[in-house]
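Hey team,

Filing this mostly as a record. A colleague (T.K.) asked me to run one chain through the structure pipeline before their review meeting, and I want the input and output archived in the tracker in case anyone asks later how it was produced. No errors, nothing strange. Just documentation.

Input sequence:
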Amino acid sequence: MVMRSSRSTRQYVQAAHPYQRPQTGPGLSTARSLMREAQVSGPGPLRFVHHNLISTVAQPPPLVSSAPSTSSVVPSVVPSALPSPASASTGRMPSFGSVAGSPVTQLQQSTLLHASPQIPDNPPASIQPQRKKYVIRTDTHYDPETGILVVMLELPGVEKKDVKLTLSTSRHNRIRQLKVWGVSDPALPVPTADVLSHFPDSCARERRFGEFSRTFSVPPDLKFSFCRENVQAIMKKGILTLKIQLGPPADGSDVQDIPVN
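Output structure:
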Protein backbone atom coordinates (compact mmCIF):
# COMPACT_ATOMS: atom_id res chain seq x y z
CA MET A 1 0.00 0.00 0.00
CA VAL A 2 2.85 2.35 0.74
CA MET A 3 4.45 1.67 -2.59
CA ARG A 4 1.23 2.40 -4.51
CA SER A 5 0.52 5.64 -2.67
CA SER A 6 4.02 6.97 -3.26
CA ARG A 7 3.81 6.00 -6.93
CA SER A 8 0.45 7.70 -7.39
CA THR A 9 1.73 10.77 -5.59
CA ARG A 10 4.77 10.90 -7.84
CA GLN A 11 2.62 10.62 -10.94
CA TYR A 12 0.40 13.42 -9.65
CA VAL A 13 3.42 15.63 -9.04
CA GLN A 14 4.76 14.96 -12.54
CA ALA A 15 1.38 15.69 -14.09
CA ALA A 16 1.03 18.96 -12.19
CA HIS A 17 4.64 20.04 -12.74
CA PRO A 18 6.01 18.83 -16.08
CA TYR A 19 9.37 20.51 -15.39
CA GLN A 20 11.24 19.35 -12.34
CA ARG A 21 12.05 22.17 -9.95
CA PRO A 22 14.42 22.10 -6.98
CA GLN A 23 12.57 21.39 -3.75
CA THR A 24 15.15 23.23 -1.67
CA GLY A 25 16.54 26.72 -1.97
CA PRO A 26 16.76 29.97 -0.06
CA GLY A 27 13.91 31.61 -2.03
CA LEU A 28 11.38 28.76 -2.15
CA SER A 29 9.54 29.58 1.08
CA THR A 30 9.48 33.26 0.18
CA ALA A 31 8.03 32.51 -3.25
CA ARG A 32 5.29 30.32 -1.76
CA SER A 33 4.35 33.03 0.75
CA LEU A 34 4.14 35.59 -2.05
CA MET A 35 1.91 33.25 -4.05
CA ARG A 36 -0.49 32.94 -1.12
CA GLU A 37 -0.56 36.72 -0.63
CA ALA A 38 -1.31 37.25 -4.33
CA GLN A 39 -4.20 34.77 -4.23
CA VAL A 40 -5.73 36.42 -1.17
CA SER A 41 -5.17 40.12 -1.90
CA GLY A 42 -5.77 40.00 -5.67
CA PRO A 43 -3.83 41.98 -8.30
CA GLY A 44 -1.37 44.47 -6.90
CA PRO A 45 2.30 45.37 -7.09
CA LEU A 46 4.38 42.58 -8.57
CA ARG A 47 7.27 41.37 -6.46
CA PHE A 48 10.06 39.49 -8.15
CA VAL A 49 12.19 37.22 -5.98
CA HIS A 50 15.74 36.37 -6.89
CA HIS A 51 17.29 34.48 -3.95
CA ASN A 52 17.63 37.18 -1.26
CA LEU A 53 16.88 40.17 -3.56
CA ILE A 54 13.28 41.38 -3.68
CA SER A 55 12.24 44.12 -6.13
CA THR A 56 8.78 45.63 -6.42
CA VAL A 57 7.38 47.06 -9.67
CA ALA A 58 4.11 48.98 -9.65
CA GLN A 59 1.53 47.41 -11.90
CA PRO A 60 0.13 49.93 -14.44
CA PRO A 61 -3.58 50.72 -14.12
CA PRO A 62 -5.84 49.11 -16.72
CA LEU A 63 -6.80 51.23 -19.69
CA VAL A 64 -10.47 52.10 -20.17
CA SER A 65 -11.66 52.30 -23.76
CA SER A 66 -15.12 52.49 -25.31
CA ALA A 67 -14.13 50.32 -28.30
CA PRO A 68 -12.52 46.95 -27.68
CA SER A 69 -8.97 46.69 -28.98
CA THR A 70 -6.11 44.31 -28.46
CA SER A 71 -3.75 47.05 -27.22
CA SER A 72 -6.06 48.07 -24.32
CA VAL A 73 -6.34 44.57 -22.80
CA VAL A 74 -4.05 44.08 -19.81
CA PRO A 75 -3.20 40.40 -19.30
CA SER A 76 -3.73 39.01 -15.84
CA VAL A 77 -0.75 37.83 -13.88
CA VAL A 78 -0.79 34.18 -12.89
CA PRO A 79 0.80 33.75 -9.46
CA SER A 80 2.25 30.36 -10.35
CA ALA A 81 4.07 31.80 -13.41
CA LEU A 82 6.86 33.53 -11.52
CA PRO A 83 9.78 34.73 -13.63
CA SER A 84 13.03 32.87 -13.49
CA PRO A 85 16.06 34.40 -11.72
CA ALA A 86 17.60 35.30 -15.11
CA SER A 87 14.54 37.23 -16.23
CA ALA A 88 14.05 38.87 -12.81
CA SER A 89 17.47 40.50 -13.00
CA THR A 90 16.74 41.94 -16.45
CA GLY A 91 13.09 42.93 -15.97
CA ARG A 92 11.88 45.50 -18.51
CA MET A 93 10.47 48.75 -17.23
CA PRO A 94 7.78 50.69 -19.16
CA SER A 95 9.49 51.95 -22.30
CA PHE A 96 9.53 55.59 -23.39
CA GLY A 97 6.30 56.38 -25.23
CA SER A 98 4.73 52.95 -24.61
CA VAL A 99 1.16 52.26 -23.47
CA ALA A 100 2.26 51.77 -19.88
CA GLY A 101 4.32 54.97 -19.85
CA SER A 102 3.51 57.54 -17.19
CA PRO A 103 2.02 60.98 -18.08
CA VAL A 104 5.29 62.62 -17.08
CA THR A 105 7.21 60.46 -19.56
CA GLN A 106 4.74 61.25 -22.33
CA LEU A 107 5.04 64.98 -21.51
CA GLN A 108 8.84 64.76 -21.75
CA GLN A 109 8.55 63.03 -25.13
CA SER A 110 6.21 65.73 -26.44
CA THR A 111 8.54 68.46 -25.17
CA LEU A 112 11.57 66.89 -26.85
CA LEU A 113 9.75 66.48 -30.15
CA HIS A 114 8.62 70.13 -30.19
CA ALA A 115 12.04 71.40 -29.05
CA SER A 116 14.00 69.53 -31.74
CA PRO A 117 15.39 71.82 -34.47
CA GLN A 118 13.47 71.78 -37.73
CA ILE A 119 15.59 71.58 -40.89
CA PRO A 120 13.99 73.33 -43.86
CA ASP A 121 13.40 71.21 -46.93
CA ASN A 122 14.62 73.88 -49.35
CA PRO A 123 17.30 76.11 -47.77
CA PRO A 124 17.33 79.62 -49.24
CA ALA A 125 20.02 80.26 -51.79
CA SER A 126 22.43 83.17 -51.58
CA ILE A 127 20.76 86.45 -52.39
CA GLN A 128 23.65 87.87 -54.40
CA PRO A 129 25.98 85.71 -56.51
CA GLN A 130 29.70 86.08 -55.95
CA ARG A 131 31.21 88.77 -58.15
CA LYS A 132 34.02 87.95 -60.54
CA LYS A 133 37.44 89.49 -60.00
CA TYR A 134 39.66 90.95 -62.66
CA VAL A 135 42.91 92.90 -62.87
CA ILE A 136 42.82 96.46 -64.18
CA ARG A 137 44.69 97.08 -67.43
CA THR A 138 47.50 99.47 -66.59
CA ASP A 139 50.24 101.50 -68.30
CA THR A 140 53.19 102.76 -66.22
CA HIS A 141 56.02 105.18 -66.92
CA TYR A 142 58.86 106.21 -64.58
CA ASP A 143 60.86 109.38 -65.17
CA PRO A 144 64.30 109.16 -63.46
CA GLU A 145 64.87 112.93 -63.76
CA THR A 146 61.74 113.93 -61.84
CA GLY A 147 61.43 110.71 -59.84
CA ILE A 148 57.69 110.49 -60.61
CA LEU A 149 55.90 107.31 -61.57
CA VAL A 150 52.88 107.87 -63.83
CA VAL A 151 50.25 105.12 -63.72
CA MET A 152 47.22 105.04 -66.03
CA LEU A 153 44.47 102.55 -65.19
CA GLU A 154 41.65 101.75 -67.60
CA LEU A 155 38.26 101.84 -65.84
CA PRO A 156 35.56 102.36 -68.48
CA GLY A 157 32.08 103.09 -67.20
CA VAL A 158 33.24 103.41 -63.56
CA GLU A 159 32.37 106.49 -61.53
CA LYS A 160 34.86 108.25 -59.26
CA LYS A 161 32.79 107.38 -56.21
CA ASP A 162 33.25 103.66 -56.97
CA VAL A 163 37.08 103.83 -56.96
CA LYS A 164 39.11 103.70 -53.73
CA LEU A 165 42.83 104.20 -53.08
CA THR A 166 44.63 103.04 -49.92
CA LEU A 167 48.24 103.49 -48.84
CA SER A 168 49.41 100.91 -46.29
CA THR A 169 52.19 98.54 -45.24
CA SER A 170 51.90 94.83 -45.89
CA ARG A 171 51.82 92.76 -42.70
CA HIS A 172 53.74 89.74 -43.94
CA ASN A 173 56.60 91.42 -45.87
CA ARG A 174 56.40 95.00 -44.44
CA ILE A 175 56.43 96.57 -47.92
CA ARG A 176 54.78 99.93 -48.45
CA GLN A 177 52.12 99.64 -51.15
CA LEU A 178 49.44 101.65 -52.91
CA LYS A 179 46.27 99.74 -53.78
CA VAL A 180 43.52 100.72 -56.22
CA TRP A 181 40.30 98.76 -55.84
CA GLY A 182 36.55 98.95 -56.32
CA VAL A 183 33.46 97.30 -57.81
CA SER A 184 31.82 97.79 -61.20
CA ASP A 185 28.30 96.58 -62.02
CA PRO A 186 27.00 95.74 -65.50
CA ALA A 187 24.68 98.26 -67.13
CA LEU A 188 22.63 95.60 -68.94
CA PRO A 189 20.78 92.78 -67.17
CA VAL A 190 22.45 89.40 -67.04
CA PRO A 191 20.81 87.05 -69.58
CA THR A 192 19.20 83.92 -68.21
CA ALA A 193 19.97 80.39 -69.34
CA ASP A 194 16.57 80.13 -71.02
CA VAL A 195 17.22 83.22 -73.14
CA LEU A 196 20.71 82.05 -74.10
CA SER A 197 19.41 78.61 -75.11
CA HIS A 198 16.65 79.97 -77.37
CA PHE A 199 18.42 83.13 -78.61
CA PRO A 200 22.17 82.48 -78.37
CA ASP A 201 23.08 85.36 -80.72
CA SER A 202 20.82 87.96 -79.14
CA CYS A 203 23.02 88.67 -76.09
CA ALA A 204 26.74 89.45 -76.15
CA ARG A 205 28.84 90.39 -73.11
CA GLU A 206 32.46 91.34 -73.82
CA ARG A 207 33.01 93.96 -71.13
CA ARG A 208 34.31 92.93 -67.73
CA PHE A 209 32.48 93.67 -64.51
CA GLY A 210 32.97 92.75 -60.88
CA GLU A 211 35.69 93.42 -58.30
CA PHE A 212 38.86 95.03 -59.62
CA SER A 213 42.17 95.77 -57.90
CA ARG A 214 45.78 96.64 -58.60
CA THR A 215 48.69 97.08 -56.18
CA PHE A 216 51.93 99.06 -56.64
CA SER A 217 55.03 99.06 -54.44
CA VAL A 218 56.21 102.46 -53.22
CA PRO A 219 59.15 103.64 -51.07
CA PRO A 220 58.82 102.85 -47.34
CA ASP A 221 59.07 106.54 -46.40
CA LEU A 222 56.21 107.63 -48.67
CA LYS A 223 53.62 109.50 -46.62
CA PHE A 224 50.45 111.02 -47.99
CA SER A 225 49.27 112.67 -44.78
CA PHE A 226 52.38 114.89 -44.50
CA CYS A 227 52.73 115.73 -48.19
CA ARG A 228 49.77 115.35 -50.52
CA GLU A 229 52.04 115.97 -53.52
CA ASN A 230 53.48 112.48 -53.09
CA VAL A 231 50.34 110.88 -54.58
CA GLN A 232 47.97 112.54 -57.06
CA ALA A 233 44.88 110.87 -58.55
CA ILE A 234 42.85 112.21 -61.47
CA MET A 235 39.84 110.46 -63.07
CA LYS A 236 38.87 111.50 -66.62
CA LYS A 237 37.11 109.68 -69.49
CA GLY A 238 37.27 106.32 -67.77
CA ILE A 239 41.03 106.59 -67.18
CA LEU A 240 42.47 106.88 -63.66
CA THR A 241 45.85 108.63 -63.71
CA LEU A 242 48.17 108.40 -60.70
CA LYS A 243 51.34 110.40 -60.16
CA ILE A 244 53.48 108.90 -57.39
CA GLN A 245 56.62 110.57 -56.08
CA LEU A 246 59.23 107.79 -55.85
CA GLY A 247 62.39 109.88 -55.72
CA PRO A 248 65.65 109.29 -57.56
CA PRO A 249 66.47 105.76 -58.69
CA ALA A 250 68.71 103.52 -56.60
CA ASP A 251 72.34 102.99 -57.59
CA GLY A 252 71.89 99.23 -57.78
CA SER A 253 75.17 98.44 -56.00
CA ASP A 254 73.55 96.22 -53.37
CA VAL A 255 72.78 93.36 -55.77
CA GLN A 256 73.50 89.96 -54.19
CA ASP A 257 73.49 86.59 -55.90
CA ILE A 258 71.87 83.72 -53.98
CA PRO A 259 73.05 80.20 -54.89
CA VAL A 260 70.54 77.41 -55.41
CA ASN A 261 71.39 74.25 -53.44
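Quick notes for T.K.: Confidence is low (pLDDT under 50) at residues 49-55, 67-81, 86-91, 95-100. Residues 2-16 form the longest helix (15 residues).
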